[in-house]
Amino acid sequence: MDDVEAILDLAERISERELASHLRAADTMEPSLRADGSVAVLPEVGAAVRLMAEAGMFSTVFPSEHGGLQLPHLVHAAALGILMSGNLSTASFPLLTVGNARLLTTYGSPAQIEAFALPQIAGESMGTMCLSEPHAGSSLGDIRTRAILEGQDELGARYRITGNKMWISGGDQDFSDNIVHLVLAKTLADDGQPLPGSRGISLFVVPKILPGGERNDVAVAGLNHKMGYRGLPNCALNFGEGQQQPAGSAGAVGWLVGEIGQGLPQMFQMMNEARTSVGLAGAMLACRGYQMSLEYARERKQGRTVGIASEDQVPIIEHADVRRMLLAQKAISQGALALVLFSARLLDEEKTAPSLAERKKAAALLALLTPATKSWPAEQAQVSLDHALQIHGGSGYTRDFEIELLYRDNRLNPIHEGTTGIQGIDLVGRKIRREDGETFRVLATDIRTTLGDVPPGSPFEAVASALHTALGAVEAAVEVLLAETDEKRALAHATPFLFAFGHLVVGWLWLDQALAAEASLCDPTAEADLLFVRGRMHACRYFAEVELPRVDIWLEPLIKGSSLVLDMSPEEF
């Protein structure tokens, strides 16, 4: 615990002093494209990234043989979340780089790990993931980037990569020694044509600077100017168009990672970790927004207490509607963080649980929860930040406060790393229907175990009742989805089902927290912060009273068999 507290305290100090201090500057002074094709970022961003590297924030989850600190992923997620709360754009550099290096240490050869992963773990090189293309977006089977075998060297099978990638976060910058791109590209069949769909998609490591010090043929085609998240450059990249031509045949030099045709399964490791990190980003933006609006509500004086004659104005936290919005923010932000950290714990248990059966269970639950872990905090953070802006009133709509910045930053989270709609399709199509609801039933059993921990007469009997009702509704919806023979009809309800499923899981985690809080009050050896504990208990009750009833509303059309969205033709819109 001393190690854990030390890394979290260090993350807090860096976040407050080095990241939060340039949040507004990074938003107003966006990355720019120089005449030579390089990307300039705010100098404070590079300085903060180098400081995080020196502090070991890139190496937390890696084993010691790779220069890592061997901390649990749960601790890494908590530390990263603290950094995100200070400045999401700057904290995204370690997010992407750690995911890149973890993929290479899993699938790369020893030589590739030495050349490309270890510099990222040390924070000397940054990493990206290059999936989407201008015409394909999330439809990765339609990518056109090509890889042609050139030969073999000490780093493995060497290919020439040609194509265009879009929406590449951190695609270029001017503060690291190198940028390591992980690129999805299609290899060719014997007839010289690319294999259709995803069968020919392989993964390649394509560095900006080649091991010999020569510049690779990777060029920035342009910068995407974003609504928020502006401190992190988002690039369109061209591979192998001759603008930065290395010696030899045409194309950027890249090395095959793993085996031919395994690009998507390999990349899904990084993508799923990134999806959990997107959920973490949403949770931490909501948490910061809650803290800011709570402080504002305690200091801002306006109006008078209803029914009490007084000349003095009162802090707006005295007004019931402001308290309602604060309680909603507390329930959403802390519930979202619970969901993300629970998923991070499963990521640890997938590798470290005592038995094979427990490891398999953790892996299955993590896969089931990932769509909700990504999308629920992202979507609900926007609701929470809307409350924060409302509490600030007219001031919240100005740039004098950072709420509007957080609101803009978070709006990307329901979009990138797979939109909310794609997460719904993943949950219903792959995680529920494809495995006949097996893992969901395991989750339902765990939820019922928690419900069984609520004793008669507990102040949380009403919470347990609301959670029991929500569980029953989701179980009924799952049975309808499993019985549906028309895939289109099932997927038409995927996003509302995802919302309901996320609410169910967060409601369960809130009850679990509340029972732990109640137990701490009854434990004479526990040093419980009374106000903190009671605040958690009230937030749990709020979520059960106000949020869990929404589950029935989301699921009612599904359970009734509505086909409204399919019945309406595109022309009728």
TrEMBL record:
Gene3D superfamilies: Acyl-CoA dehydrogenase/oxidase, N-terminal domain, Butyryl-CoA Dehydrogenase, subunit A, domain 2, Butyryl-CoA Dehydrogenase, subunit A, domain 3. InterPro entries: Acyl-CoA_dh-like_C_dom, Acyl-CoA_Oxase/DH_mid-dom, Acyl-CoA_Oxase/DH_mid-dom_sf, AcylCo_DH-like_C, AcylCo_DH/oxidase_C, AcylCoA_DH/ox_N, AcylCoA_DH/ox_N_sf, AcylCoA_DH/oxidase_NM_dom_sf. Residues 261-424 form the Acyl-CoA dehydrogenase/oxidase C-terminal domain. Its cofactor is FAD. Transmembrane segments: none annotated. Residues 129-239 form the Acyl-CoA oxidase/dehydrogenase middle domain. It holds the Pfam family Acyl-CoA_dh_C. One of its GO terms (molecular function) is oxidoreductase activity, acting on the CH-CH group of donors. Keywords: FAD, Flavoprotein, Oxidoreductase. Residues 3-122 form the Acyl-CoA dehydrogenase/oxidase N-terminal domain. Residues 445-568 form the Acetyl-CoA dehydrogenase-like C-terminal domain. Belongs to the acyl-CoA dehydrogenase family. This is Acyl-CoA dehydrogenase. The lineage of its organism: Bacteria, Pseudomonadati, Pseudomonadota, Alphaproteobacteria, Sphingomonadales.
